[in-house]
Task: structure prediction
Amino acid sequence: MSENLLKILAAELTTLRITCLNEECGTVIEMPIDRIREESSKEIVCPLCQAKIRSRQGTDTLSKLATAIDELKAVKGVEVSFILRQGTGKE
Ligand SMILES: [Zn+2]
Result:
């Protein structure tokens, strides 16, 4: 089976794309990972429907993810990457 591989280095992860699913809103927000981490005490709301995407806790999943990605970038002695596989459909 053939497959296409897409390798993404942790260091290349710079932006999170968040889609608001509140009542089929569908608004897409893109935020720099650094900003999500640095502004972890700020609330994030959907610019269209005002749904709360992140509360002011700083311990939410988005903040944890941003922190983990930053920590991955700082790991010494190894290179961390993510592999996306896309099969061709031909086996
Ligand atoms: Zn929304």
Strands lie at 3-9, 15-19, 28-32, 44-45, 52-54, 81-87. The chain has one domain: 13-76. Residues 13-76 form one domain. Residues 61-74 form the longest helix (14 residues).
